[in-house]
Design goal:
The protein is built from 12 helices and 21 strands. The N and C termini lie far apart (56 Å). It is α/β, with parallel strands linked by helices and 416 residues long. Helix content is 28%, strand content 25%. Helix 2 runs parallel beside helix 9. Bound molecules: pyridoxal-5'-phosphate. Pyridoxal-5'-phosphate binds next to helix 10.
Length: 416
């Protein structure tokens, strides 16, 4: 266990979180390198013996040190912007193991991706195909591409993170795919290398994931029959993690086994692009109680982290476990609280209706905050973004300094 109590204090590996709060202040994201490596290893183990590449989805947590750790383990990367490409390269990741996804790639982003030599651009529309062909010809190259095909499968997850249905903005329609491949095959600036899908995030059951993989594999088969042979099949990411005791997802190995079953006999390289399942349970958001505010209808713990630091509860009504950093004494002064931040929005909560014993100054850890945490943070209410710390054993390293108010004002012109 990467986050466990030792002598009554919650630790990240061997580093006590109260000490980290003293050293680095709060709010603060703390990540465990061992947990990240273990999650990555689960994927490599499930794919052993298969020609496969795990492309970590950078948008889940794009800290340079997290990317460098994964690059060192041999990971490829799945990116959705030119900014993420720059991060991958700055972290020592390889362009030739990088997939570029996303519905709205700009001309500049496409040109940069081709110049840096990314492995593949995942196309999401016919208009994008035409744009990529034109840019590649102008640069005197052939762009390696795959289509992200919408398999029209209900991922049965939150509507904001469900992406594989026909009405979704993502991917090209399943019914259109063969025509698009045939058209692309005739374009001088295009080299067809693969096919992919991604049906949504925080999937808890392997069945829809495997079903999507099966539909994509069947398409690859039909394309091969028309003489279009692809190098890879990308089955996407979206494998869920455990946030609490409800709806505990199948482990990644179960997802991969089910998908591999659908791909039996296929020779293409298998690509999987997990984000949340690599980093989600590897991080916590450390926060300090500012005020205890008892009330008639609800009681509140006002803490120093807020929706600008961790948006998931406000955006998706997401549930995160909240643990006291110092293990509560039995029979203490526990009560039921909403854990809220200082931001001026009623939606600014981190957790609701939790039984906690907490006095002002006490530290809390918001668990499973390693994915879609810091990356979705903002400066709303002119709040500097939190610090990020990466732990390895007993060693803790500041991997992103806390922002300062001066840095927030720096891009604005002095008022006249
Ligand atoms: C976001 C995304 C992923 C990763 O999703 P997770 O739920 O974090 O695993 C994978 N592939 C694509 C194309 C994505 O957009």
């Amino acid at each position: 266990m990467s986050f466990a109590y030792r002598s009554g204090v919650l630790c990240a590996e061997q580093a006590p979180l109260d000490e980290l709060a003293r050293r680095f202040g709060t709010p603060c994201y703390v990540y465990s390198s061992a947990a990240i490596a273990a999650a990555y290893d689960e994927f490599s183990a499930a794919l052993r013996g298969r020609d496969a590449l795990v492309c970590y989805s950078v948008k889940a947590n794009s800290n340079l040190s997290v990317l460098a750790l994964l690059a060192g383990l041999g990971a490829g990367f799945d990116i959705v912007s030119g900014g993420e490409l720059a991060r991958v390269l700055a972290a020592g990741g390889e362009a030739r193991k990088t997939l570029f996804s996303g519905v709205g790639k700009s001309e500049g982003e496409i040109a940069a991706a081709l110049e840096k030599g990314v492995y593949c651009l995942n196309l999401e529309s016919e208009a994008e195909l035409e744009r990529v062909d034109a840019i590649a010809r102008r640069l005197g190259r052939r762009a390696p591409v795959a289509f992200r095909v919408n398999p029209d499968i209900d991922a049965r997850t939150h509507p904001y993170i469900s992406t594989g249905l026909r009405e979704s903005k993502f991917g090209v329609a399943h019914a259109d795919a063969e025509r698009l491949y045939a058209r692309a095959a005739a374009m001088p600036g295009i080299e067809l290398v693969g096919i992919g899908c991604h049906i949504g995030s925080q999937l808890t059951r392997a069945a829809p994931f495997a079903e999507a993989a099966g539909r994509i594999a069947a398409l690859a088969e039909r394309l091969a029959g028309r003489g279009i042979r692809l190098r890879h099949i990308d089955i996407g990411g979206g494998i869920g993690i455990r946030y609490g005791d409800d709806d505990v997802p199948e482990p990644p190995g179960g997802f991969l086994a089910a998908a591999l079953g659908m791909l039996a006999g296929r020779r293409e390289t298998l690509i999987v692009d997990p984000g949340r399942s690599i980093v989600g349970n590897a991080g916590v958001l450390l926060t300090r109680v500012e005020y205890v505010k008892p009330g008639a209808a609800r009681s509140f713990l006002v803490v120093d982290a807020a929706m600008n630091d961790l948006l998931r509860p406000a955006l998706y009504n997401a549930w995160h476990e909240v643990r006291p950093v110092r293990q509560a004494e039995q029979g203490g002064d526990a009560a039921v609280y909403d854990v809220v931040g200082p931001v001026c929005e009623s939606g600014d909560f981190l957790a609701r209706g939790r039984r906690l014993s907490a006095r002002p100054g006490e530290l809390l850890a918001v668990m499973s905050a390693g994915a879609y945490g810091m990356v979705m943070s903002s400066n709303y209410n002119t709040r500097p973004r939190a610090a990020e710390v990466l732990v390895s054993g007993a060693e803790a390293r500041l991997v992103r300094r806390r922002e300062s108010v001066e840095s927030l004002l720096a891009l604005e012109e002095p008022p006249r």
